[in-house]
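Chains adopt folds. We examine one example:
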Amino acid sequence: MLAAGLRHGVAAFVACVAACAAMPARAQAPILEHAVKATYLHKIAAFVEWPASAFEAADSPLVLCVAGNDPVGRLVVEAASGRTYGMREIAVRRVAQPAATTGCHILYVAGLRDDAIAAYLESVRDKPVLTITDGAVERSVKGAVNFLIRDNRVRFEIDLDLAAAHHLLVSSKLVGVAARVVPQP
C-alpha cells in the first residue's frame, strides 16, 4: 500500500516537473516567484514575536490575512494549509476592505494602488500586525516587510521601526537574510 502511494507521489512530481519544463521560460519565473512568496508569508512568522495580548487564548490561531488582487494570495491557502506557528495553527483569511482586518496577525497587501495599500496599512496602525507588501524599493507605501526581486530571486526588505511600532520583535536571523534593513542594525 505504501509503495503504491509512493509511486503515485513520484508520478505526480514527475508530471509537475514535465509540465513546468514544457512552459516557456518567461512563464516559469512568475509561477515560481508566486509560490516562493506564498511560502515566505507563513514561514516569516517563525521569526517574529507577537505580544501575548495579540491572541485571545493560548491556542488561538495565527491569522494570516490576504488583501488585494495578487496571484500570490491564491496560493497562500495551499502553502499555509496544515502549518503552525509554535503551537498555533495558521488560519488564512481573505479581506475585501480595510475595516475587515480586525483579528489579523499578518496582513499581506498586494496588487492594489498605493492609496488602497495605505488604507489597509492604516487600518492596523499601532496594532500587533505584521504588515507585508509586495513592490518595488521605490514604492512610497510599504509594510514592515516588503517583497522585491533582486538578481532574479525573491528577496525582502524589513523596516524595523515599523515592526516595533506594531509591537513586534523581529528575529536577528530574519534581519540577517534581508536584502535591505531600515534602519541599519
Observations:
- The chain has one domain: 25-182.
